[in-house]
Automatic annotation (TrEMBL):
It comes from Nonomuraea jiangxiensis. Pathway: Cell wall biogenesis; peptidoglycan biosynthesis. Residues 1-21 form the signal peptide. This is L,D-transpeptidase catalytic domain. It comes from the Bacteria. The keyword Acyltransferase applies.
Amino acid sequence: MNRVPRMLPALVALVAMTACAAETAPVPLSSAAPARAVAAAGVAAPATTPPATPVPSAPAKKVTLKIADITPMGEKTEKVGVGFPIIVTFDRDVKARADVEALLDVQADKPVEGAWRWVSARKVIYRTKTYWKPHQKVLFTARLSQLPGNTGGKDVSRRFAVGTSNISVVDTRKHQMKVYRDGKIAKKIPISAGSGGMVKNGVDVFLTTSGVHLTMGKKAMETMTSGWMGVTDPKDPRYYKEQIPWAVRISDSGEYVHQSAGYYQYLGRSNMSHGCVRATPAGAKWFYGIAQRGDVVKITGTKRKLDWTNGWSYWQLNWTEWKKGSALKS
């Protein structure tokens, strides 16, 4: 359906900076031997060499690596879905990636295999091989105090709460979304997906992307405009600015599951949106109510493939490809 400008999740600043410089070792005194007495009378002993004056050196600069943000929030703030990633952003570029990655630990009450992948000089993401088990706690710890040279570095930890397993399957050809909760079908919702027909740079931007999306956030009322198409003039027939209820974001390119703004006759019958998944008022409100960040939304039936860098779409990479982003040797 309609699009909005890219939204970023709220950042949580962690760990206060602590600068500390090690004291330098004193410069040793001169090692000249003491003068020996001369046997001959009247001959003075040679003068000793005066000790060198110590030259103080500049204190060594210590870099303290800290974490600028951890996503998602902790167990007391939100419950997350079974597809959720752990996204760690540092306050500066990480050069010793393998050393840092080795100090990042993830422990789950119901363990599954997982791996880190560096996506930039400051950001690393943890994804599991299979979905997390629902209804458990996961503890993340960064032992930055153990990083060589990271004087004043502090250990950081966060515990996550995994909620219900919400896995939704959207079939754009059958115009239906099936929502499974803890493995059981909970609801079938008539939908309308992207109609297609607007090609930009070889991509039909009106098609909904097919692939494994993760929910990233939600708003009870979202303002959607035609600005993403470059249409900002209200006189342009393509212009729109609408208040859309029950909007759950599933990508960075402006895709949502949301209530259809009218046009209910198309729901369950045809694809008429600008790329979002439109749902019935009752279906959209229900889905909004259960949605957790990190819930899985699988979309099938379109020719436009979801890129793994679009939002939290990390499940688009197979496990072998995902592990290639780790700095540690397997």
